[in-house]
Amino acid sequence: MKKIIRSFLFVFILFLAIALVGCKKNEEENNGGDNKPEEHVHSYTSYFHKEVCEGCGKKGTLESERLYDEEVVYKYSDEDYQKFQSDYQKVLDEVNKVGKYDAAKDVYVQDSEAYKAEDKFEKDFYDVFDEDCNYIVEQYQYATIRENMDQKSEQAEADLDQITEYYNEAIEKYYSLFQPIHDSSFREYFFSEEDGWTEEEIAQVLYESATYSDPEYVKIKTENDKIEIELDNITDMKDPKVLDLYEKFFNNNKRLAEIQNEPDYATLAYKYVYGREYSPSDILAKVDKYKELGTEFNKFYKNLPKYNLKTSERKIAEAFIKDSPLEKDLANDYIYKYVQTMKHEKDDFKLDFAAELENIFKTGAYFQGDYQGAFSWVIGRDEVPIMFFGPGSYSSSFTFIHEFGHHNNSVLNKDSDYLVDSMDLNETHSQGNEMMLLNYLMEQDVNPDVKNYVISDEVMGFLQIIVLAAAVDVFEQAIYTNTYTLANASTIMADGQITKNEYESLFEGVLSSFGVGQLFNTDYWKYVCCHSACYYISYSVSALESLQFFFEYQDNGYAAAQEKYYKLYDYVTLKKEGQTYLDVLEYVGIPTYEDDELYDDAINFMKNFGK
């Protein structure tokens, strides 16, 4: 099928090749009276793992090639933009030149003159424009990474502002072409079964074409991007401007739903932005289970035991929950040893975490910077998976291994025709990888208090996001549907309308209904409801499911947990058409969001922890 830039993200595998690199060590020799430096080659064997050189005692790694440092540079020009505009117009001109579709005469015939004409249209015009769009996507990604690396740079911010406008225009023009092509005599050849098109996919791109052909839609999307950038520059979430910006963002999304004939933006986002197999009402149907979780979490949090760890024990704990493997040796050592255990083969599928980690650090496919966050992204027309880590906890071992899970999902299944495109599944790969790292710690010969300390921190973080993310989703649904029935609903809905002055009390009411009113930061929604509108329920659902890998370890041991986790990847070997996220969970052997068992397992863990 023709390459559809549906998510505007790309994947590419880079192959591992380990080589020794040299450095100079000045040593004097008495050689006929001449003192000559002797070339010294470190005995390092890894690009990631910090080792002590047997020859000189210096600690280090093989030198990374840093292949992408010079490549990931923003360089989009006015000439590039003019070419993009010109190539778009050429495509339209060619489509208009061939005339409208006639079902009686425009019948698909292999190798006919019409077949050859459409093939020439693709190669000479459509593919050229497609490449222009890919270049804009690439430059948008590069500008984003550079701005995230140095958020004090005015030039980086200006570059990102400019390319964001071009990026949104590229999406608009790219998708808007599908309807004119479908209306033309090119229809049967462009959307042919030979190229892999299905009726469902044709219907989807025509829907998107109608959407992106609307100038108002594109204008709103651009405004929302600017709102997100403006929010990034606000350091105090108590600033009243935050409420003003979110109200504008909310109204924009409300209008987007109207344009696309959806009842509300939450419904639109669930269905089209994130492609979920459940609806907003399905999540609201589980509110009582989330209330149980929240109530039990409150008790769990307040009754967590205090651990008086020795200095050496605290260092082990912090290697997992605090320290960055990019900076601290002990954290680096544990991550390196963990990935050595993660190797799996099924049919022609191979999973080798250690080899992939080496590849990342050999090529330099990771970046660090100012941005308060961490992410995995597939960048550029070469489709290279990279990872980005911000300061502090945003590069800790668990965060690192979380993003590594995303990275591996991008790499290991990229060529499969059976890969499930699901945000929830993507998060299960990454959060599940965190649980596997926790399981690895459980296998180590360390003080049980160290293990329980890390469990209480890591699992508590999962339980917290399960409840908090669900609260955010209920909050967003209330605003987008103007319907709310939980705590303080009678006050908020008294005038029949949720206003910006009630956002904060609304979120506090949801937290109170979930039994965690005094525990969580009531400003949390401000950080995620613009940048990730209606997304965070995926974090909640996948965290519940990822905890199953830890529970599997507790019940049946490390090898059993590994085998269960590997199934998140090797389900593609089943070669089943039309697989869904729920199908994958069934194959893995994990309850779904619909099953009370999923929530009860987490509740029972909290009730029994430390007993």
What layout of secondary structure does this protein have?
Blueprint: E1 22-25, E2 38-41, E3 51-52, E4 59-60, H1 78-98, H2 113-149, H3 154-176, H4 178-183, H5 187-190, H6 199-212, H7 215-232, H8 240-259, H9 265-273, H10 280-284, H11 287-302, H12 311-321, H13 329-340, E5 343-346, E6 349-352, H14 353-363, E7 366-368, E8 374-379, E9 384-389, H15 397-412, H16 423-442, H17 448-481, H18 489-492, H19 503-513, H20 524-528, H21 536-556, H22 558-570, H23 581-588, H24 596-608
Helix pairs in contact: 1-2, 2-3, 3-6, 3-7, 7-8, 11-17, 11-24, 12-13, 12-17, 15-16, 16-17, 16-21, 16-22, 17-19, 17-21, 21-22, 21-24, 22-23
In short:
This protein is mainly α and 611 residues long. Helix content is 58%, strand content 6%.
Summary keywords:
single chain; two-stranded antiparallel sheet; 611 residues; globular; three-stranded mixed beta sheet; mainly alpha; 24 helices
Strand content: 5-15%
Terminal-residue CA separation? 56 Å
Radius of gyration, in angstroms, nearest whole number: 27 Å
Based on secondary structure, the structural category is mainly alpha
Order of strands, widest sheet? 7-9-8
- Overall mean confidence score, pLDDT: 90
Portion of residues within helices: 55-70%
Total beta strand runs: 9
Contiguous low-pLDDT stretches (5 residues minimum) are 1-33
**Silhouette:** globular
Count of DSSP-assigned helices: 24
Largest sheet: 3 strands, mixed
